[in-house]
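Handout, page 2. Input:
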Amino acid sequence: MSEEISFDIDQRILDTILQEFDVNRLIDNFAKNIENKKKEEIEDVAKKVFGEYGRALMGSAIELGEKYSDRTHEVIEEVAEKTGVGPFPHVYQRFLEIFNMGTQRKALTVVVSNTSQLTHSVGPCVFLNAIKEKCGEDVAKLLTCKHIDLSALEALCDNLKLSVDVRMEASIPNEGYCQFTALHKK
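Output:
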């Protein structure tokens, strides 16, 4: 009888992220830090609070993804090595999937994926919804939660030693979803 091989993200990864990176604790901390702050000051607080959170969460997603590897991750690594393509876009996408599943609790929506570009979208968003609930509509419209994603993507690129330009191309208040594009510089 052969050993069963899993192609799914290990549930221990998702449970650990959910426990260690509790969205409500994050937003409670943010709400406390922006009390009596002017609009301009809120952005600075968001960059710090959400930036630290995004970097730490992506670091944990990478660490846990490697610790509790599955067959999908192993095959992606093998293909990246054998083809010489490197970690972009597939290894990059795998850790982004862990990050997304750990917080949003749903599959990553990939819009474009090739060796030059990876574009993904998010919506609805647990972070924005929590900000709206705890801080109000005016703060939510500032879209301060973008710093979570942008700092996480930066941390991912740093970890994988990728030269990538990351940009935000759409936002939930304007388009009904947030969209991020990573352009690989070869």
